[in-house]
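Input record (one chain):
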Amino acid sequence: MKILKTEQRLCLSCMEEHNVNIVEVEEQEIYKDLEVEFISTYEYCADSQEYIETEDMIRTNRLAMKDAYRRKVGLLTSNDIKNIREKYGISQKEFSEILNWGKATITRYENHQIQNKAHDDILSKIDSDPKWFLEMLERAKERISPKLYSQYYQKALEQYNMKNNPYYIKTITTNIRVSEMKLVNAHDEKYIKPTYKNEICSNFSYLSEPVFIENPPILILAAY
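The corresponding structure, as predicted from the sequence alone:
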């Protein structure tokens, strides 16, 4: 048992006010004829030596057990599915619509239901192949709004570029105060350092970190 935190409040086990521990416990359970190991979270009363599950804990612990089963049989976990969806910047409902699976399917997969192998294969393909997801978006164009289609398409295209172009550079656009800028010669890595006093550059695009590209003799503008 690992104590995560302690709270002074009414204990639901002994119905007395005292320190209640929130703990993690390693558990084993048989699920669909397989023994799985996972971490559960409980409230623990040291006086009665009892574990208590709140409604939220029941849901979390059941999902932890199902995710352990998914890992054991080679399926994506609920967090894996959530990460794929968030990588493309799509809501649960819209992701289901694009896949034409029904509005609540992705919500169920992320919260309590284990996906079948066919759906798991599709999700894995989307994760590894942004170009394929771009094609799926095109087929689903009539089922989502033009604004959302454009938003999701740009995000998927960004993922495709990052995966397939080793020289792809993502820029960040913001308002910054420039105290010093450097021009980086990507060919020989020499620096030129012009200085600007208290100038505001609106919507200035800069690199999140210096990037050097082999061979092409081009200049990259970087802010430091």
